Amino acid sequence: MLKSRQRSTTCRTLARHLHAALVTRARKPDFFRGFHVADTMDGRFDLVALHGWLVLERLESRPDVAQALIDEIFEGFEEALRQLGTGDMGMNRRLKTMANAFYGRLQAYRGSSSFEDLAEAIWRNLYRGSENRRAEAVTMATYAQSVRSHLASSDLNQKVDLGSFPPK
Questions:
Q1: How open is the CA angle 15-40-115, to the nearest 5 degrees?
Q2: Which of 11, 69, 110, 148 has the fewest CB atoms inside 10 Å of its own CB, making it the most exposed?
Q3: 7 close to 145: Cβ distance less than 8 angstroms
Q4: 3-state SS of 46-78?
Q5: Which of 67, 77, 66 lies closest to 102 in space, CA to CA?
Q6: Do residues 161 and 151 make contact, with C-beta atoms less than 8 angstroms apart?
Q7: Are 158 and 141 in contact (CB under 8 A)?
Q8: Whole-angstrom Cα distance, residue 137 to residue 3?
Q9: Helix (H, G, I), strand (E, B) or coil at 43
Q10: What contacts 136, CB < 8 A, 6 or more positions away?
Q11: What is the value of pTM for the model shown?
């Protein structure tokens, strides 16, 4: 029982660190200034979803930590909604909408079998299909692959590091 509780605490602590790292990265001004991601709730949400997918993909062999990270992400979403004034009555409906959008984006990114597919998914989600943002979507797909490669070779138990920034 004690080992189970200790393992659970370790998972939650790691998930908190991973969540903090991905949210910090998703809030980098370069995404909004240089890569023209909309500096809106939707744009910020989409950056968290993209980075969440990258980290969750790395955690496929650690479902306990992956679930703890998802819990942290949604606690962050709930906190943001509360700061915007969402009361208890509307919270479940809004969180359900966010969950559908989040999991839809994860599915789109996971379903990308090629670089082109990933760039297309990023273009549809992060840039809402804006024709004049296709080049940025390709740049963001290159960035995502870079972070993905970096995470694949990282020991997430040692230091939470999403690799180099900004995207090139």
A1: 65
A2: 110
A3: no
A4: HHHHHHHHHHHHHCCCCHHHHHHHHHHHHHHHH
A5: 77
A6: no
A7: no
A8: 45
A9: helix
A10: 35, 36, 37, 127
A11: 0.91
